[in-house]
Task: structure prediction
Amino acid sequence: MKKCIKSKLIAAFLAVNMVIGIASPVANESSAAKVAKLGFKKVKLEVGQKKKVVIKNKKKKAKYTYKSSAVKKAGVSKSGLIVAKAKGKAVITVKEKFNKKNRLVGKVTVTVKAKKISNTPVVSVTPVVTDNPATAIPQSTLAPATPTATVAAVDPTAEPTPDVYSEELFTMYIQDISDKKYEVNGATCDVTMQYFEGEAEGEYFNGNIKRASSNVIKAYKEGYKDGKSYTTARYILEGKDSSGNACSLFIEDNGIINADKSITGKPTIITKNEELAWLQTADIQTRVIDRGDGNKEISFMWNKDNTEPVPYPTVTRPDETKSYTEELFRFAIGIGASDEVPGSDGASSSMINFTCKTAEGFDKFVGEGVDNFADTRMQFKGQVQTLSARYIMVGEDADGDECTIYVENNGIDDNGMVTEPTIITDNPDWAWIETAPLHGTVSWGASLTIHMWSTKEAYDAGQAEK
Result:
């Protein structure tokens, strides 16, 4: 009997060990997936170029250090910005310090090449006229053409317009969060909401994005807003100015995607920092470089020759001249933490975090938000406070059909919130909403409730299109 029990115990022990043995690699893979690692291990740069070291799966409380094996060839800053200095090679060693333990994250091999110089001959288009008016000899290294009896005057080519945005204030290094990308394909516009994180580095400011923020890309279709694509990113930076003083910057960067796919933007910046207060009215342009794999560089360029203060954004008041009687949506809002950045000259900004779902008792659309969102508030001297809340919800319409809606609720808070929302949806029965007059109001009960309305005329026309 004892021998039988002993045999069973041994068998059970072996079985457990086999299970552990089988499960261990999976557990190890899961753990390994969370270990910080380099986004790339090799990079080629020209002298003068910069590149940010990308670390995936960063630990929030960990400290990362960077060291170059050949500083004269390629240097690296405390935040991991590689600067190519001279032709040659350097190795950037990246380490992680977490819970008093040091770990090698990896090494980046940097190959620096000489800056390319154009060998294209420069040809002057201004002719040199000789005593013989019949012949004009251009100043050129190219073989001269056989002169004819008469030579028409050549109009000089206009010199290229110099780039007035010539001084870089700082550069943002952005990393898209891969599992936080949401899309809505509407009748008039395709919307992408991409969450991101990142840091800023430069002569005037160095810091980090306070919390994951979003960039919304609206790609309009032919016949709507000239078929152009626009971007709007909103975020708060926390860091230090050039004197080492702690400060915060609120940024709303409104951009346009050009024909060559490049992106240029016009940022609104709010800060109370004495050294950087001038940014609120400075002439600044942003330029985006897509480095691939969700990594972007955004240069904040200053037109220092423009000494005229740039006006603050104007307030657009929602239309209240129509009779909005048809309720389309009703959302219950869960209000979360608020991040505030006071500004200079009476300016202020805040980002109020919230969640959303369909309010109880409303059945035209039943759904909830795909993530946490932010209601962005701005106010400038002599103006009322503006608000803009952007969110995407998934759910079902009254017929049980699955659908997604993007809401951009823009308005004012002047002793009460009133809005004029934009709604984009993939529900074909609601396509009319995208171009209909819309109006937003609020009510308070157990929570904040948002009501969205349209006119009876627009509603009836929309129903007739089904």
Notes: The chain is about 10% helix and 50% strand. Residues 255 and 265 are 4 Å apart (CA to CA).
